[in-house]
Amino acid sequence: MSNKTNRGVVYQGPGKVEVQAIAYPELALGNRKCDHGVILQVITTNICGSDQHMVRGRTTAPEGLVLGHEITGLVIETGRDVEFIKVGDVVSVPFNIACGRCRNCKEGKTGICLNVNPARPGAAYGYVDMGGWVGGQAEYVMVPYADFNLLKFPDSEQAMEKIQDLTLLSDILPTGFHGCVTAGVGPGSTVYIAGAGPVGLAAAASAHLLGAACVIVGDMISDRLEQARSFGCETIDLREEGSMEDKLEAILGDREVDCFVDCVGFEAHACGCNSHVEAPATVLNSAMTITRAGGQIGIPGLYVTEDPGAVDENAKQGALSMRFGLGWAKSHSFHTGQCPVMKYHRALMQAILFDKLEIAKAVNVQMIGLDQAPEGYADFDGGAAKKFVIDPHNMVKA
């Protein structure tokens, strides 16, 4: 056992997180050595909207779970079998944990690795039903299958200069980009992004990077809509009365878009005067209504199989009342599931390093210390138009 200390952000039940002493990571998986793993000193670790679902009590997450799946770190120890990652490397950690050996990994489907979660395909750090892996909102964390999983930054000094952008490679930037790719965004596209949280803003920035002609972002929080406008998006305030088709026509001269990206997920609310009412299928139904025939719908927003706080018994089991016949009639294609981060993160790193993408500015990164994490969770839950990034060792500040 190590005598080194570690602290992390721990889920304590609905609405409550605490920074507590936790075990220092070891290169071990249960009772066996993890010779393919590394231990990281965490440089940055981000608060994600998916974490917020758990903290709100909207999943079956157990108390005592160490949170955090968006991790960037400094390698301080390597296992015997790690060949290409070295002590001193600064690396981005994909939130998907993947073995690199199974059929799905070999096909590039690293979000649904078959070997890292005994319950079902796919795993992540610090997340409910994702294999029991310890989260990275901490001072130190262990990463398995390091040679396969980790993205090494080519120059550590340059990485630290751009760390507020590069920290977003672990999840939200590839996730937003994946949503756009699977929605068919390309040069000249018209795109609707549902939700102006960090993933929605990352998707909007990604749509611009992919050459979209017009990117429209819809949300119910004024500050988030203002943030979307700050980098060239059109916006729709979903609290206002009127049909989505009329609102699109006022912007585009057209009542439909080419591409739709759902960055909201299962905690969606109804629009207009009923915006206080939860309606978990409303975004999906809107997608089918306002996407042109033959268009594509990307769904990076999270949908769960169990939601204890859902509005009805069906929704508690992830069964939503969708108007699927409309999507069928319009020949829509739908793409769901976790983003396979490794499919995109190297290219997106290059876009950041060569100044083609200012993603930290787009999502409004705010740096906080580890002890400020509970406050960050509370502010994020209140709709703050910010992406909270934790700096556990004051390495970014320094």
TrEMBL record:
Domain Alcohol dehydrogenase-like N-terminal: start-end pairs: 36-154
EC category name: oxidoreductase
Domain annotation Alcohol dehydrogenase-like C-terminal: ranges: 198-266
EC numbers on record: 1.2.1.46
One Pfam short name: ADH_zinc_N
UniProt keywords, alphabetically: Metal-binding, NAD, Oxidoreductase, Zinc
Family matches, as PROSITE patterns? ADH_ZINC
Give the protein name, as stated in the record: Formaldehyde dehydrogenase, glutathione-independent
> What is the gene called?
fdhA
